[in-house]
Amino acid sequence: MIETIIFFIFISLCCAFFVAEKDDRSFLLLLVSTAWLLGLPLLSLVNNSFPFSGDIDDWNYFQLAATPIHSLSDAFNFSRFQSNSVQPGYPWLLSIVNHFSGHDLYTFKSLNILFLILLSLVWYRIATLLEGNRFGKGMACAVLLCTPLWFYIFILRKDLPIVLLHNLFILGLIEYRIKNSVQSWLILFSSTILLVLFRVPLVLINLLLISASIIISLITEKKTISAIIKLLVITGLVTGTIFVLYNPYYMSKFGIFSESRQLNSSGGMIEMAHSIHNSSTINRTLFPLLYVLTEISGLNPNTWQNINVQWLRGITAIPWIILGIPLLCAGLITLIRNITTNVATQTYNPNFVIKQNKINFENQWIVLFLFILTYFFLSWQVGDTTRWRLPDIPPLYAIALYGWYFSSKTLRNKCILIWLSSIGSFLTIFYLLREL
C-alpha cells in the first residue's frame, strides 16, 4: 500500500517538473508536495468515518477492483467487466492499482488525490497560455482548493478521472488554436479515446467543441486552401468517431456492451437522455441558479443534523457559494469587456461614424465559454446540476480567479457586497419563516 502511494507521489512530482516553466519548478514541486502532505491525513480522517457513500456505485467499484489480472493482455481486456459495469474505465484502472497494492480502499481513494493534483497541473498550463505564469500559478492553487471536487476524493467514484480527461481536452484545444502542433493533436485524441472508457456521452461534447473551434478558426483564416483542408480533416474525424460510437462491434472493443452507451436511435444514449430528461424532478425555472451554486444542501439546516456523506457534500460547496460566485460575476463582466472590442464603422453618411462591439474570436477564453455553455445545455437535458457538470467547475474557477486578478477593485468589492447581502437576506428570511 505505502509503495503504491509513494509511486503516486513520484508520478505527480515528475509531471510537475516537466510541465512547469523553468522559473516555476520549485513552486510547483512545493505545491504538489504540500497537497500530498495535507491531503493524505485528511483522506484518512474522512475514510475512517465515511468509507462508503451509501450508494451502490462505490461499493461495486471496490468489489470490481479485485478482478484478477493474469497477464499483460488480460490487463487491457476491457470486456472483463461487461457483466458488472457499463463503462469499464474506472474498474479497469482500480484493478491495475489493486494488482500492485492489494485490495485497499484507502489506496484506491488516494488515486483521486493524484487526479486532482494532475488536474491542477493541467490548469497551470491552460492558465499560463491564457494569461501568463502568474495566473498559471494562481490557478494551480485554485484547483487544489476547488472544494466542490473534494467530495469526489473521499468516495470511490469515476468523476475525477472524467474531470481530468475533459480538462486535458481543453488544454489540447487551446494549444491547437495557438500552435496547431503535433502535441496539441496528441492531447486531443488521447483524452477523447480514454474518455470513451469512462463516460461515452461526453465524447459528443468533445466532438462539438473541436468542430466549433475549427469553425471559429476558419472565420479568421486568411489562407483559403489551409482552411478547406482543416475543414475536411475535422469532418472526417468527427464522422469517423460518430460511426464508432454508433457501431456495437467497435464499442465492444472498448468493453462497452450496453445500448445506453451506444449512439443509436433505439435504446441508445440519445433515447436514454430523453428518458432522463423527462424523469428529472429538478426545478427548470431555478436551474440556472442551481447550476451556478453547484450544491445547495449545505445551506439546509436539516443537512447539519446528521453528520453523513451528504453533509460532507454540502459543506464542500459552501466556500464556492460564499466567495466564488461574486468573483465569477466580476470575472464574467471583465472578460466580456475584454473579449469584445470597439470597432469604428461608417454608415451611408461618411461624416457619421458609430462604434460597435465585435467579438474577438482569436481570444482563447472563447474555448472556455463554449465548454461551459455546452455543459450547461447537457446538464439541462439530463436534469442534473451536480455530478454530470463537474468538468466545467475548474473553468468557472478560472473565470472567478480572473475576476480576482484583473477586475477593478470597485467592481470586485461591489459584486462581493451585493452577493453577500443578497444571500444573507435570503437565508435570514428562510430561517425565520421555517421557525414560524
Secondary-structure topology with pairs:
Blueprint: H1 2-19, H2 25-49, H3 56-64, H4 72-75, H5 89-101, H6 105-131, H7 133-144, H8 147-154, H9 159-178, H10 182-198, H11 203-220, H12 224-246, H13 248-253, H14 269-279, H15 287-293, H16 309-315, H17 318-339, E1 340-346, E2 353-359, H18 365-382, H19 393-406, H20 409-435
Antiparallel strand pairs: 1-2
Write structural notes for this entry.
This protein is mainly alpha-helical and 436 residues long. Helices cover 70% and strands 3% of the residues. A two-stranded antiparallel sheet has the order 1-2. Strand 1 and strand 2 form a beta hairpin. The protein folds into 3 domains: 1-190, no CATH class; 199-278, no CATH class; 280-436, no CATH class. Helix 2 runs antiparallel to helix 6 (105-131) and helix 2 runs parallel beside helix 7 (133-144). The chain has helices spanning 2-19, 25-49, 56-64, 72-75, 89-101, 105-131, 133-144, 147-154, 159-178, 182-198, 203-220, 224-246, 248-253, 269-279, 287-293, 309-315, 318-339, 365-382, 393-406, 409-435; strands at 340-346, 353-359. The protein contains 20 helices and 2 strands.
